[in-house]
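Hi R.,

As promised on Friday, here is the backbone we talked about, encoded as structure tokens. Could you run it through your design pipeline when you get a chance and send me back a sequence?
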């Protein structure tokens, strides 16, 4: 696993979960009190999210933290 592949996988999982809930990036960003550009970077795996950021995302998506890390490698 490369240095940033985990953050890319988590970002893709956030996008997948968001889309499954019918939310736009703007909607999810607003629920998390983030700028849309920050949500875009998070989903693209260009940022290394903190645990508090991931907690806000899981709360907004109503999923568990484990679900963010449940992906195919």
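Update: got your reply. Pasting your designed sequence below so it's all in one thread:
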């Amino acid at each position: 696993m490369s240095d940033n592949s985990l953050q890319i996988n988590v970002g893709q999982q956030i996008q997948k979960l968001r889309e499954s809930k019918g939310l736009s990036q703007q909607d999810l960003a607003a629920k998390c009190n983030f700028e849309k550009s920050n949500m875009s970077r998070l989903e693209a795996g260009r940022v290394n999210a903190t645990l508090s950021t991931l907690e806000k995302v899981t709360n907004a998506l109503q999923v568990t933290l484990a679900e963010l890390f449940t992906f195919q490698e």
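One thing I noticed while checking it: The first helix runs from residue 5 to 20.

Thanks again,
M.
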